[in-house]
Amino acid sequence: MTTLGTDLRRAVRGQVLVPGDDGFEAARLPWNRAVDQRVAAVVEVEDAADAAAAVRCARLAGLAVAVQPSGHGATTHLDGTILLRTGRLRGMEVLPERRTARVEAGVRWGELLTATGKHGLTGLPGSSPVVSVTGYTLGGGLGWFARRHGWAAGGVRAFEVVGADGSQARVTAGSDPDLFWALRGGGGDFALVTAMEIDLHPAPLLYGGRMLWPADRAPEVLAAYREVTAAAPVELTAWFAMVKFPPAPQVPEPLRGLAAVAVDSTFLGGEEEGVTCCGGSRTFPACCATAARRCRWTPWAASAPSRRSRCPARAAPNC
């Protein structure tokens, strides 16, 4: 293990930690602390060239490489693997005239949406601003705007990658169609992605929020949900879920310990249209708690409209 650490430190400029080093135990932890990742080393690469050097070193040592920009994608199948952290790859360029953005592997959705929102544009995020754009997209990326604009992976124009031999390349549909196809939803197992070029979309009015009912009302809520979604336009995305709130002091008193059924919705348009396409107050039963938002584009509204909108809360007309 000492030899591995020495070889890696000679090869890369970023921080290298191996078992026994101060900070190794914390560095190997994923976002999900319930998963125990027993890796051989953790490397915090500085840039794409550093990532390529780390891959070449791993190949010479006969070891596999796993990549986690922000600790998501945890697995117990990493014994003896070199874990690469790409969180320092934070380069980002938004080209509003082309409606595209280039993001490096460490850029998170909240950061990208803050930048694109200034131009009235958005990517295709999921429900959290702290997840990396690259990791989310490599897994497919089914988000709030997928019914209107498709999966996030479908909006990739190019990948910048490091291959298994440590070589760097730019991959497009024209340059390597098979690899390009595999990377768009294949989970990133076919190459180490250091950056992507993605499409951006106009950001219209956004209306939506969360409604909650006691869990015993799930049958009637589900019936209403099925009625609404059966004829929903592509601008509307709605999610049905069963939720159990912990009895923790951080949870608001009305929800503390509550077993509930939830409907989260996002409509790409204004309030009047949003209420109409949700069936108005005639469809969903009166709910016990709401957190609706009506606003023009804001970064957090894009990343998680049901929970992190910056717009003021207001009473929801059951939508």
Mean pLDDT: 85
Helix-strand pattern, N to C? Answer: HEHEHEEEEHEHHEEHEEEHEEHEH
Structural class: alpha+beta
Strand content: 25-35%
Radius of gyration: 22 Å
Number of strands: 15
In helices, the fraction of residues equals 10-25%
Distance between the termini: 57 Å
Counting H and I runs of at least 4 residues, what is the number of helices? 10
Shape, please? globular
Strand order in space, largest sheet: 5-6-10-8-9
Task: Give a short account of the largest sheet.
Answer: 5 strands, antiparallel
Could you explain the architecture of this structure?
This protein has 10 helices and 15 strands. With 319 residues, it is of the alpha+beta class. Helix 1 (2-11) packs antiparallel against helix 3. The radius of gyration is 22 Å and the shape is globular.
Brief overview:
This protein is of the alpha+beta class and 319 residues long. The protein is 25% helix and 25% strand. The radius of gyration is 22 Å and the shape is globular.
Keywords:
alpha+beta; 10 helices; globular
Question: What's the SSE blueprint?
Answer:
Layout: H1 2-11, E1 15-17, H2 24-27, E2 41-44, H3 48-61, E3 65-67, E4 82-85, E5 92-95, E6 100-104, H4 109-117, E7 121-122, H5 133-138, H6 146-149, E8 156-162, E9 168-171, H7 177-183, E10 192-199, E11 201-202, E12 206-214, H8 218-230, E13 236-244, E14 259-268, H9 271-277, E15 289-295, H10 299-303
Parallel strand pairs: 2-4, 3-4
Antiparallel strand pairs: 1-2, 5-6, 6-10, 7-11, 8-9, 8-10, 12-14, 12-15, 13-14
